[in-house]
Structure formats: C-alpha cells, structure tokens
Prior knowledge:
It is a single chain. This protein is α/β, with parallel strands linked by helices. The chain is built from nine helices and six strands.
Amino acid sequence: xxxxISQREARSHLNLPQDKVFFLHFGALHPGKDIETVISAxxxxxxxxxxxxxxxxxxxxxxxVQHYDIQDKCVIRNYYISEADKQYxxxxxxxxxxxYRKSFSQTASQAWEAVGFKLPVIASSSYDLGQMxxxxxxGLSFSAEDALSLNNAxxxxxxxSQTERQTFKENCEKLxxxxxxxxxxxxxxxx
Length: 191
C-alpha cells in the first residue's frame, strides 16, 4: 500500500459513515464471483453495510439490490476504481468478502491485496481460498453459494472483540511479509 490511511480518513474521503461496520466487495464482477450470495447474506446483519466497488459486467446490480430490499445497506460504486483510490476502500472497510462459486478454483487476487492492506478476509471455503484463510488465520470462511453460512460469518465477525479483529490484521501482516518479493529473494539467495 502506498501509505497508511486511517479508517476515519478513508471513510471521510469516500463519504461513508463512521459508525457502521463495512464489508467490502471489490473488483470487477465476473461469472466466478457470487455477488447474489453476498447481497442476500447482508440483509439482516445489524449495523453493517456492504460496499461494492468496481465495474459490474455480469449482473444488473441495482435490480439485485432492490430484489433483496437492501438499498439502505448497500453502497454501489459501479466504475473502475483507480490504484490511488483503491487504498481508501481497503482502509475504510472492516473486512473484505470474497464470495466465489463452487466451480471457481483459483485463489483470488483480492485476497492477496487485502492481506497487503491488513484487511481481514471473509471467504468462501472452496479450494485454496478457504484453506488459506483458515491456515493463516486471516479471517473467517463460509460455505460457497450459501447465504446463511455467509450471514453467520458476518454476524460472527461483528461479534468479535477488537483484540480478535486485531489478531486477524496482524496475521495478514505476517502472511504478507512471509510471501513478499523481498522475503522470497532472501530465501533464494540463502540457497
């Protein structure tokens, strides 16, 4: 990340309220992402909002939000987010939601970006992504394509203590350092 930005500063920059828990869904929507599960899951989560940031190509997002009646819980930024602005979305959020269909078998690049920003991850448990979240303790996982499972994970996250959330952030920082280019270069030189 280019510089440390406080959550307060980032929320102010993005015109987001300071008193809510924000879950981020970031990046262009493609068929492997499961935005409907995310939108369905957030409906009855108290004091939480969903920020969907990134260009949407594969679904009518406004209709989906209206269908689940969560207009008051959803901030949609349906356009390309520049590298300069990306840091504000990650800093403003409490966690990122990475929801993928069961058939999607790749580790999401947003997981690595979130880790780099020390942002806890709430990810579908399919394939490598869920395993990474569990093994490195960087957040919570839920059953892919299961809105109730995600809903429970979101409520669990909100119920965590500040210490527990901080532990996720610290684990993100450790993971980011472990897999940094500098660390890999050092390992290579040792060999």
